[in-house]
Fold this protein.
Amino acid sequence: MVGTTLRKIREHIETLASADGEYYLICGRTGERPIPAAEKRFDGRATAQSAARATEQYRAALRQYDPQLPYYDVIACQVTDSPTSNNCPMNHSRDDNDWTLTDPVLNTAVHNPSSQDLIEFCHHVTAAVFETLSDTGYDTVETAVMDTYFDLAETIANPDHLCLCLLESMSTELDTRLTPTEQADILAQASARLGSHDATDKSLTASLTLLQERGLLGSYTRSPWSIDLDAGARSVVVKISDYALSPQYGRLPVLPFVLDLYRRQPDWPPSSLQVVDNGGDWKVTLVHAREAEPTGLVSAPIHSKV
């Protein structure tokens, strides 16, 4: 299975990585930091070159289900006092926890994401889910997602649209083939593969901002949290515009959004999502309730009115 291959290669790269290493990997043509080594450092050039080979193998495995995955010329670069002096510019990305926006928040587009941002993000999410499905024995779900994707790949040439279709089909298959409790388990395990963040009261804003930066949504507003102490629950309303994923069978795919929330708040993930069609935009009600049964986690029901 693709997922097993991806997991083994990722684990190998993890063993090569060092927190304070002087080497990192980029594409020699574009300067992009390739997954799954995008945030990794390595002690020496030989180790970094081994990681580069493993990264190319990883991307070749991904390409088994997505022929549109960009080809990278992965090379090792050394960190210097002047990052551009060796013609390998370091891509200093902002940590997702650095956002300090206040509630309620209006966030208009401050970043113009490239198509590569979107494609890499989609592959990062789907790879984590594929690995989890394979590792937990949900082979029929994994196969169903891939079969749907291959059917779409024969008719859609645009790689931007194709990677979005992969997320849409994955959300639909998870929703129809797994119980809500099984979906929650897959999300928890897949989020752990992506790496956790310290939970803060800004986690929701950070997730929305990440989706905006990667091109999954255009802008958003959100309300303050509403707290129900008796029920042990809290809820928030988020309005989003220019959402990149399309409705499927009366439901809105929300997999990448919820997966990132799981990553940031593993001890108190969302329990349910409901969506209202707001004339082309979407009004999403997100609920955290410790005792509630999960619902709408990968694909949320769409309502015409509140």
Observations:
- The chain has a mean pLDDT of 81.
